[in-house]
Amino acid sequence: MNKFIFISAIIFTLCTMQSCSDENSDISYEDPTNFFMPAADATDELSVVRRQFKEEQGSYLLFNDTLQHYYIGKDINGDNQYFTELLDVKYSVGGNLSTKDKYTYTYLNEDMCIAATEYLKKFLIPHFSTKLRPFSWFLCGSITGKNTNGNLVKPYALSGERTIVLACGQLSSLNTDARKQQLASRHLLTVIGNLASNNASAFSDFTEICSKYYKTMLNKPTDVSANDYVRSYGFASSTQTITFPTQEDDISSFATMVITYTDEQIEKIYAKYPIVIQRAKLFKADLISLGYKF
Asked: I need a labelling partner for 98 at 20 to 30 A (CA). Which of 156, 181, 216, 219 fits?
């Protein structure tokens, strides 16, 4: 009798699992990456550009931060209601809540969208190996947000786990490659600093050398400048007069250094500070390991 009950239980369980499997097979989940592509039937020039970019570069291309916008019905007053999903730059993969960091953007006209795409392909993408390229690029006119102190800021770029945003409005007044390269350097400095901050483990050999000094008091002799004092400990420069730099400032200063100067120039400029030279080499090697191309 017990054997019969046991076998019956197994059969019931298998039937239940099959039933659940059949039920789940009817559920349709929309691929969220669809929201990063133009509509399948869109034939306008920018839609064509975006599709070609994805095929050639492997990343999605956006000119607007609206991922979804559609009619969902009327409210009790009879007013139309819409669902809108905006691009969350600081979105974390696996997270289910929007971040508190909010930015607003101005948008490029069609001609500038095309010009910004060519700028991206010529001046920025060559520095990003396939493994370092973001899930998407968002090219806009300008970026506006607030820093931690609540002050208005207009950064050149933003980056997160699924997008890099570039403010490209200045391109309309840049008529030479040399001037466009200057803008590209500003974009790269911001993006590299963010990449290093967002991939802290990849730069641990760089940060651990100075980690115990971050934000601690300088206690420097009165006859030594703040810059000379912090450089003797391995920092590129001093951003404060009474404390050592923060980790964020430390990363930002070395990002600026390795992008601006060659290895030979760094060794000449910081000849008196061997720890700075050592950390510059580590930072550059870590950046290359991530997939950055100099």
From this structure: 156
pTM of the model: 0.81
What are the pLDDT tens digits along the chain (294 aa)?
444 444 344 444 444 444 343 434 343 445 566 789 998 889 999 999 999 999 999 999 999 998 888 889 999 999 999 988 889 887 665 544 445 568 999 999 999 999 999 999 999 999 999 999 999 999 999 999 998 788 999 999 999 888 999 999 999 999 999 999 999 999 999 999 888 888 889 999 999 999 999 999 998 888 899 999 999 999 999 877 789 999 999 999 999 999 999 999 999 999 999 999 999 999 999 999 999 999
Helix-strand-coil percent breakdown of the chain, rounded to 5? 50, 15, 35
Strand, coil or helix: what is 119? helix
User: Alpha-carbon distance 202 to 246, whole Å?
Assistant: 18
The C-alpha atoms of residue 33 and residue 259 are separated, in whole angstroms, by 33
Cβ partners under 8 Å of residue 212, min gap 6: none
Q: How far apart are CA 108 and CA 49, in angstroms?
A: 14
Long-range Cβ pairs for the range 55-61 (8 Å, 24+)? 57/121, 57/125, 57/133, 58/130, 58/133, 59/133, 59/134, 59/135, 59/136, 59/137, 60/33, 60/36, 60/135, 60/136, 60/137, 61/117, 61/136, 61/137, 61/139
How many angstroms separate the CA atoms of 264 and 251, rounded? 20
At residue 60, what are phi and psi to the nearest 5 degrees?
-75, 155
